[in-house]
Structure formats: C-alpha cells, structure tokens
Amino acid sequence: MFIETDAVVLKSIRYSDSDSILVLFTKKLGKVSAIAKGSRRSNSKLLACSQPFTYGSYMLYKSSSMFNISQCDVKDTFFDISKDLKILSYASYVLNLTKNVVVENQTNNRLFALLLKTLYCFAYKDYDFEYVTRIFELKLLDYSGYRPEVTKCVCCGGKDDIGMLIQPENGSCICSNCAREGQPHRRIDPTTLELMKYIISTEFNVCVKAKVSPFIVTELKKVMRLCLRTSIDGYEEQVTY
Questions:
Q1: Does 40 share its domain with 133?
Q2: Which listed residue, 47, 71, 114, 132, has the most CB atoms within 10 A of its CB?
Q3: Which three-class secondary structure state does DSSP give residue 88?
Q4: pLDDT tens digits, residue range 178-190?
Q5: Where are the beta strands (DSSP E) in the chain?
Q6: pTM across the whole model
Q7: Rounded to whole angstroms, how far apart are CA atoms 59 and 53?
Q8: Domain check: are 45 and 136 in the same one?
Q9: CB atoms within 10 A of CB 107
Q10: For the chain, how many structural domains are there in total?
Q11: pLDDT (tens digit per residue) in 70-89
C-alpha cells in the first residue's frame, strides 16, 4: 500500500554505496525511517529529496519492517540555510531536537507546522535567530506535552507571589511561600517569565517579529536548558545553541 505524505528530512544515514536511510518527520505518520534506494548516485531522482532540511511530498510503501521511498515532489530545500555557518548550526540543532522529541508513528501536526515555519525563518528572513530558536524550544515543549508551568506555582497551585522564582529541575514557577518551605528554587528576571507567557500564548509568526533585549533572550536560554534537560532524553549529548 502506498502512502503519500508531506515530510521533512531530519537525518540522512548512509546505508550502502548507493542507498540512504532517511529519518522523516511526516504529517500523516509521525517519525519514520525510510530507505531511499539509489539516492547516493549523482543521477538519482531521489538525490534532491534525501538531504536534511528538505521538505516535500513523499510517496512511501512498506516492505518488511521499513518504509521505502518510491518518489518525491520537493517543495523546498531551504538551501539558503547552508550559506551561513551560524544559521546552519541553529537549524541543525532544531532538526536534532525535533528528531529526539517526535515519537515513532505518532503524528504531531502542530510541531510539524512549527518546524516548517522555523526553517522558513532561517532560510528567508532576517530575524534574531537566537530568539527564534528559543521560541522554537518553548513551543516544542508545549506541543509535546512538556510545557513548563508559568501561570501558577507548580507545587501548591497558588497564583500569588510568583514571577521571580522557578524550580531548577524543570523551569516551572514556584511561589515564595513554597520556596521558604524548602522547595528547590532559583531566581530569574520577572521579564523572562512574561516573555515565556507571551510566546506560549502567541502565534509563532507574531512572536518572531518582537524586539527582545539580548539579556532577556540569554535569561530565557538558561530556563530552556533546565526544561529541556528534564524533558528530552539525551539532550546533554546534543550540540546546543
């Protein structure tokens, strides 16, 4: 049975002298691995669709335990990402983060759309890509069920006296009363919490246009590190930006 689905190539692995195994984030199937036969040959019709970042409509069929790619209509290669080493580093980090979060054979269309919007920004826009990456991280956590608690104390549920303290193990808010009772905590700039609330509640295409000070972006990065270390297996082994 053939399945046609939009997909982004998260990783390409050499399988043989002529074949590759692609890790695809698909719209209909979630994360799957698929063999692109002959894709390593210079004249292969699958060469262009076998590169990381490529977005296209893939025709898949399953034989034994793995999908095979029969054809692909490339929609965008996001080629301009590769022209700048720093942008390439941010984009590669985003791909790797997605690969580690997405579940095999489980769809996540909000995250799929978020990934495409983020790659589009890296390739075609002139935004603060450090800030764009932080937006992606927080929304990825939100869409994957790991959103940090930013509206109330994660310990007692109280909404008073929050905004300057978070739990170091997960980046969620904690009130001063719970902190005084011995709950682990660390202090953050209250503007950072307001930014987190803004990002969670606002569309990506609006968030990226906001002007945020480098100091607050750096503070947000520290909080995101706490959240990601708790939520994503193997996060410490990734190259982080």
A1: no
A2: 132
A3: helix
A4: 888 888 888 888 8
A5: 2-14, 20-26, 30-36, 55-63, 66-76, 165-166, 186-187
A6: 0.92
A7: 17
A8: no
A9: 17
A10: 2
A11: 999 999 999 999 999 999 99
